[in-house]
Fold:
Amino acid sequence: MTSVTAAADRGGLSHFDTPPERSGAHPVRWHDESDRPADGSSRQVVEAFARYQRKAALSMTTASQGTPPAMDRSAREAYLSSGTIGADVREVVRQSWARSARAGVDPSSLQPVYGDDEADPKVLAAVDVVLARQLDRLGREPISIIFASPSGMILRQTCPDGSLSGFLRRVSLEPGTDFGEGRVGTNGIGTALQAEKPTLIMGAEHFADELTIFACAGAPVHHPVSRSIVGIIDLTCTAANGNTLLLSYAQTVAEQIELELLQTVGGKQLALLRDYLAACRHATGPIVALNSDLVMMNHHAQQSLSDSDRAVLLARTSDARGNAKPTVFVADLPSGTLARMDYRPTFSGAELAGGVFRVGLTATRKEGGERRVEPPRLPGLAGHSRSWMRTTSALRQALRADRWAVLEGEEGVGKFALIRAMHYAEMPDRHFRMIDAQTAAEDPEGWLTAVEEEFEGPPGTLVLRHLDLLPGRMIGPLSEILLQQAAHSRNAEGHWVVATIDQAADHPAVLAQLVPIFDVTIALEPLRHRGEDIGVLAPLMLAQIAQSEEITLSARAVNQLQRHPWPGNVTQLQKVLRAVLSYKRRGVVDVADLPAECLAVGRRTLTSIESIERDAIVRSLQSQGGNKSLAAIDLGMSRATIYRKIREYSITITG
Ligand SMILES: Nc1ncnc2c1ncn2[C@@H]1O[C@H](COP(=O)(O)OP(=O)(O)OP(=O)(O)O)[C@@H](O)[C@H]1O
Structure:
């Protein structure tokens, strides 16, 4: 082991001990007060810095080892003048330069942007503890430790060396400045955030001229449980002193902050983490753990599922949230895969702390495009998910066996449409009547009489729609009528009675007194759990509403619709398609043509204020070509806030 003596001797940086092949320079200090930058022209500053670098270089031990191959300034100049990328430009840098150029960063003039950022106080407290400890160890080493938010805003900066501090101030590397890549181009903070991994940016690899005098190593700091990025640690020193040790040091500081943060994690989160890790240990498939604050997914869930499958899977998991009993359920994913989800609750003491889902995936479409057996057609309706087929087949069996049924599902999910289509598909010659309990309160007597008269009329289907809305005082009388009829009319000449209820409604008396009169309860799943159906439903409905085949949906638009949670189900999808048709009558509807509400894929229903805010963000992002910084300015919010809200509302930006 080689130790970097100058640093370790002072009791600091001893963790820089490295194998010989990775050993490198130790940080240097100003040797002479006269080297300190004078307040003067930038030329003076550059000269002062050059002097400083030269001296720094002299005091280095094994500077070049462990350092990315030095890239001379000509590669950068060639790129900036002609867009030519030299062979010695590292991939991470070449990608970052391209992003910086696309974001319109001016390489010849650094234009720092100042602002506020909402910092998590727990994270900042952990950062402060670790930075104070590091500062003690650094003594007066000319190295700066910076902490920036997930959007690149500098929140903390320490530098024990006054001279280096002076240079940092000149480029505004100080709290309150946004060092996101889209603002100042390639740099240790913004580029590491983009790459989501530790990244070293050396001298001329920086995009902006003024930053090329520095070496910056950025290491993301993760939340110890969720592993989401809570900020970034950046170590900055002179370009001549930069090497991979700087990166190791940044990673060490980031890890120390994570350890510090771990102390603040509550019992519930730890309990969930414990169960999640235990599940991951034996996992051969996706594992998802969640509570109201946290979602954790193993590598399998992140890598092997498409975005739309993952969105549907998460939507399905959130339905079991808060359940204190183990449950197993099945979800159809948009790709045609069937997910069997085994949910086990997690407890912290007696308190429910969340739950872990072990997911088993079964491909339902075989290679070679083997077709499924198509169910009998239901006129005017579309659907081919397993869930849809299970429901339609259960309802068909109930009809054929004269078994009275309750069809339950969320509002607008298509309960009534399905019963009506089933009736006309199976017994088109028979009488069909719907009586809506929503109107029962207006004329209770008349409503009950209508039900009685229906039973006296010709046989057929009687739908008692919205049964959960029946006023309490009418439940007794209706149950008497139904019980009496149930005793007589279960034969081919009788009535097939089907009721619809909203499963979200609070209707204990209906459940206790009326539902047991029916033979079977069948569930029609919310649209968000039948993403596959959207692929056939949306084009069909678009053509139906437009009464034309001149307008179609692109595959990307369908994919986007499949990712939406559809709290208002098919009715909401219908409204969206109507809205699209109000401004586009022919051609191909693409993602950009969809209303703002469809560009967000969230797991929960938003309040109206939240959806207004979400729509405003989506509109602004659209008008700014997807540029989050510009959208933030447009909306008068900080970049951190827009990033948080984009995540919170699960807004996707497709390019
Ligand atoms: N699978 C489907 N294919 C085509 N259209 C559908 C389908 N499901 C629902 N719809 C249409 O969606 C709209 C809403 O359906 P419907 O009124 O049956 O929902 P519901 O569940 O009975 O709603 P609620 O309980 O809120 O009254 C209707 O216009 C219906 O024709």
Remarks:
- The first helix runs from residue 5 to 9.
- DSSP finds 23 helices and 17 strands in the chain.
- The chain has four domains: 5-262, 267-363, 386-525, 530-648.
